Amino acid sequence: MTKRKTESQIVAILKEAEAGLSVPEICRQYGIGQSTFYKWREKYGGMEASDVKRLKELEEENRRLKQMYAELSLKSQMQADIIKKL
What is the pLDDT of residue 1? Predict the structure, then answer.
């Protein structure tokens, strides 16, 4: 059973690699695959824990805005259909 790491834990793991620990050693220590490590580094590399928190906030805001747009678009389409029928 694998245990998911929090974003803060991921950032801490990446900091260890930046400090000089080898990637295979880090992967062995935390029980993760090297491909997972490199995916994390691609997404979270160079970030601090506060940056990750802000990223999550922005992703949530983006999700809400997309939902709002979808709802307004549907409402507009329904209104256009009603007008066509009149």
Answer: 45
Q: Helix 49-85 crosses helix 7-18 at what angle (to 10 degrees)?
A: 130
Helix axes 23-30, 7-18, angle to 10 degrees: 150
SS3 47: coil
Cα–Cα distance for residue pair 15/31, rounded to 1 Å = 17
Containing 28, the helix (H) or strand (E) segment is helix 23-30
Between CA 47 and CA 60 the distance in angstroms is 18
Range of the domain at 11: 1-47
Q: 1 vs 17, which has greater pLDDT?
A: 17
Model confidence, pTM: 0.64
Q: Looking at residue 7, which CATH number applies to its domain?
A: 1.10.10
DSSP code at position 31: T
Arithmetic mean of pLDDT over the chain: 92
Residue 65 phi/psi, 5-degree rounding, is -65, -40
